[in-house]
Amino acid sequence: MPGEPSSAEAALFSVYDRRGALELARALEARGTPIYATGGTRAHLAEGGVNALDLSELTGFASLFDGRVKTLHPRVFGGILADRNDPVHEAERREHGVPRIGTVVVNLYPFESTVAKAGATLQEAIEQIDIGGVALIRAAAKNFAHVTVLVDPSQYPLVVGAPSGVTLETRRQLATRAFERTAEYDSAIARYLEAGLVANDLPGSLALTIPIATALRYGENPQSRAAFYLSRTDRLPEQLGGKALSYNNMLDLDATLRLLVREVAGAASGVIRAAIVKHTVPCGIAERPSAAEAVRLALDTDRVSAFGGIVALDGTVDLATAEALGDVFLEIVAAPEFDAAALARLKGKKNLRILRYERQLPERLARELRVRSALGGVLAEDDDPKAAPETWRVPSQRQPSGDEWRDLRFAWDVVRHVKSNGVVIVRDGVTRGICAGQTNRVSAVLIAGERAGEFARGAACASDGFFPFADGLEAAIAAGCTAVIAPEGSIRDAEVVAAADARGIALVFSTHRYFLH
Q: pTM surpassing 0.70?
């Protein structure tokens, strides 16, 4: 029979991330706390002078199966889960030589960072699925009435700074974070395994267990509170200058980065795209070999709307580009690279947020699951890999010219990012008129044409949805557009084609529509 266990509350350490563990263990040891630790953790503590007992001395078993089994034992979990106020629990604990374990310090194998590495194999991922650590965390969190559970080094000062022990309220807060952490971990594993399935489908369960990245001053409006949650902080652009990002900044940045993705086959290559967004609505996009020229032309689309907007481009910001931004008031300038002279110039603008994003970020955003709240639940969508590919056809008698094809592709690439009903007019690789969010398509065309002005002459026009009547197409023709692209599918498509032929313009039909709500 085991001997009478000590009545002192012990601590159990099993950490992969060893930052701060030695300082915490020293503080606990100085208070007379017995310390148990698993192999690698114990060696680390011993090197720092902490007299920790190997967990095998408690369990009577060595670590088995390459470390897959080392903490799963009744004396470990009994010491954590026993209710100190229950005399039956206490009698059983003493009978079986189970010590009280009042502090559990565990962080998990780095599954998320392992699978994030290029070339990570399935076997490598599987070996980073923690079993005992998750079980320890859950057990300690369940018994937070008596046990303190620490899952991150940032929490250690709560214990170090409380020589008389942390409060019940603090233990409850730590338990809450512990359950959040295990949920995040399990969700990351499920997402990884699901992504590798041949018959990949939308998730059977959408677990939004995303850790907080930063608290925000407020939400969309000052009377709202908000925070930003992110599962992988390496996705967050690096801020090189300016104030902290706000809730609305992040929404606008997301919308702008998505505009940099070239979705349409045959899109222009060897050019830099500059995009300007205000309140998530595009107000100027241009493509040119020079970043400075692309920025200038994007601004020229609508300088009034660009005021207070954000600019992103997929090329390097040099001094000429920084100068092209001029004195326009902007919230953000984002790019994958900034040269030193440009950065110095932009930092001279008080409060301008300067962001450097990873070059692959826009493409990743475009491919990920898109989620939003509705009716107290969550809507989710992605691009269906089993959907029929998009095809275009020219039903009009006149075919688009080479220049018109170029502008049609560009306009079609942009209009999918304009809130429906959306219309985009493009000439010479520059958006000349953009209208979003109208409740009827004719108004959207009229407003886009008015904004384009003389630049609508000979321009291409894209509509995110089909023309239910010929009047929308006729409005584009009246503005001066000579080529139009829209989805097919209206019961009056024949009337729309006839209107195009009557005026001698080129009309392109797509099998896909791009409503954005």
A: yes
